[in-house]
Automatic annotation (TrEMBL):
Keywords: Membrane, Repeat, TPR repeat, Transmembrane, Transmembrane helix. The chain crosses the membrane at residues 154-172, 179-197. The keyword Repeat applies. It comes from Effrenium voratum. Pfam families: TPR_19. It comes from the Eukaryota. This is Uncharacterized protein. TPR repeats lie at residues 26-59. The keyword Glycoprotein does not apply.
Length: 211
């Protein structure tokens, strides 16, 4: 932040003492702090009020403006520290009441946030220790699963295809249509029987697991 104090032109005459000049500079800095507070520039107000307090430590107006600017910036500890050294007057009492309300509100929010974090942590532990049950497959998923062949079924289909092709190649040309039909029928029958037996075994395994 640019310091505005060096821009001031103060002529020191023999009638002014060093203490009077310092008090005048502190008053100017304190008044600038008041202007910045009116403009909503709390950071600038705090800097100029502190500047005044550095020059005149017991400057009450500057101390009050430090407290007010600190309050607006959320520095509640510094605000309380400055209020403690100020004499009680209506403005100081109002700021002290505002500070107490702000602290209570902040404490309430912190308590709610802590409770929410603990609850979230508890839910996370429960999820890790006891994962949610798996969702049951939908109707369409069941259809797809039932249609999709297993590894053994694929192998069986390949074997049947090889046998059928071999039979068609080995069969005489005049009996080729009959050979194709017989190969298809036999392959379909073998595959159907194998699938039925496999499904029966799976049903038995499922029944044992449920028991």
């Amino acid at each position: 932040m640019e310091n505005t104090l060096p821009k001031w032109s103060v002529e020191i005459t023999s009638t002014f003492t060093a203490a009077q000049v310092t008090k005048t500079l502190a008053d100017v800095a304190s008044n600038l702090s008041a202007v910045y507070l009116e403009l909503g520039r709390a950071r600038d107000a705090l800097d100029h009020a502190k500047m005044a307090v550095d020059m005149v430590p017991k400057h009450e107006k500057a101390l009050f403006r430090v407290a007010k600017a600190a309050f607006l910036l959320g520095d509640f500890d510094q605000c309380q520290e400055r209020l403690d050294v100020l004499p009680e007057d209506p403005a100081v009492k109002r700021l002290a009441a505002d500070l107490e309300r702000a602290r209570n509100k902040h404490a309430s929010k912190s308590k709610k946030l802590g409770a929410a974090l603990l609850e979230a942590a508890g839910e996370g532990r429960e999820y890790v220790e006891k994962p949610p049950p798996e969702e049951l497959p939908t109707f369409f998923q069941e259809i797809v699963q039932s249609v999709t062949p297993t590894k053994k079924q694929v192998i069986l289909l390949c074997v049947l295809a090889v046998i059928s092709l071999s039979a068609m190649f080995l069969a005489p040309r005049r009996y080729l249509p009959q050979a194709v039909m017989m190969s298809l029928l036999c392959s379909t029958l073998v595959f159907a029987v194998y699938t039925a037996l496999t499904m029966e075994e799976e049903d038995k395994d499922d029944a044992k697991k449920t028991k």
